[in-house]
Amino acid sequence: MIEAHKLSKFYSRGLYALRDLSLSVGKGEFVFLTGPSGAGKSTLLRLLLRQERPSEGDLIVNGHNLSTLSRRDVQEYRRGIGFVFQDFKLIASRTVLENVTFVLEVLGVPPAQQRRRAFQVLKWVGLQHRVNAYPRDLSGGEQQRIAIARALANDPLLLLADEPTGNLDPDLSLEIMNLLREVNAGGTTVLVATHDRELIRLVGRRTITLDQGRIVEEA
Amino acid sequence: MRAIDYAIREAWASLWRSRGASAFAVVAIALAVTVLGALLLLTSNVERLFAQWSSAAEFSVYLRDDATSEHRGAIEALVDRSGVAAGREYVSKAQALSRFRRDFTELDGLTQGLDDNPFPASVEVRVLGEAERDGRADALVQRVARLPGVADVRYDREWLGRLAAGLGAVRSVGLTLVLIMALAAGVTVAAVVRLGLYARRDEIEVMRLVGSPMAFIRGPFVAEGMMQGGLGALLALGLLWVGFVALGAWWGGQLSLLLDGATLRFLPLRLAAWLVAGGMLVGAAGGFAASRHAA
Q1: Which of A216, B30, B82, B263 is 20 to 30 A removed from A67 (C-alpha atoms)?
Q2: May I ask the CATH architecture of the domain A26-53+74-218?
Q3: What is the tens place of the pLDDT at every residue in B149-178?
Q4: What is the nearest CA distance from B11 to chain A, expressed in angstroms?
Q5: Do B2 and A105 touch (CB under 8 A)?
Q6: What topology is assigned to B58-156 in CATH?
């Protein structure tokens, strides 16, 4: 699913965020990316979301070489990727249901299918009873579950999560991780960036540790 | 089709959400379109009157007081043989006086105490449009002017030329002004649309991350600009109509007199439709320029 070969990302004055990184993530895997702040976890996720281009090396995801994608190809590529962020990125002015249907609408899904699919994923994350609530009315855990539902709405092959439990207490964090494990059990490849070692230990999956832009440990 | 439907719904919602700023953009477009509309209103009417006056060309041969019936007969014979006239009419001194009194009632007093009728008799000749254009009318005027019994011949076409030149100058200056104002209106729309873009930055970020097509991302902003442009143009047409009606109510009589009985007309429907389309185009251009920041 993900192949990185001698992947580097640097900014001006030789500041490397990632350096000669090579890794492989198979289809259907659940992988943690961990490491201290500034290790390069978020940079790798930004490259995988194609928010940035690699400076050197290759990054191939599901057959797409992310260094050479055109703008139109980037749109097509992103339709196969789900994302979850620490700050949820929910739209405050839209209800729970609208936050999910919105994504489907802007991808051109017909209205009847939008609602059907939205109810399906909201039921799956256990929030079908809050469809008319606004994000401000929900707890942090509920908001992250909505974000996961939104990420799943388009049935992605790969789910990227950047510190998804960063704003949650330990119990809610575990709840979200269990939800991500269920997503993975459905066949979706999941890549989670987190610095929460305890959570990684509890979930117990493949873990890649980064430091100063390089892989320093893989377990 | 879904992208268009989405763009219109979102644009309308955004227009309503930021109605204060949108009103500002609508007024900017309305001002530009009002100037353009006023210019078109003026030029279309002047052009119509110009064509009317050009086709109704005539010259007057004023007779000396001592001109005889033979003199008059010679003049009329020359006019008839020339093939230039569409018709002619003899106006006697008495008819000229009564025509003056009828047309200028407020000046009637001036003619009351006169011992003699100061108005000359004349032969009014209606010229064929073709003869007016190919110069035969000018040649006839010169020949008639040399005949005995003729005091003067009035065939003043220069003012029509001056009017055409003046109209051209007004059109050039007006169009320059309209272009500047349209640019300013486009920039205003772009600024207002960018405010909407800022308000929807979270949505746009999500749209970009899920791989939404550009039509969905930029479409609402183009549609919003287009709506502002359309509303501005409709407002301008409304203002022009009110102004036109007011002008007719207050100065209609004097204008009719000044224009020799001709009436002014409002912009034709097709031109009004073009104005609305133009306003929408300027608005859409502003929205499109602003939406680049969303891409």
Answers
A1: A216
A2: 3-Layer(aba) Sandwich (3.40)
A3: 999 988 867 677 777 788 788 888 878 888
A4: 14
A5: yes
A6: Alpha-Beta Plaits (3.30.70)
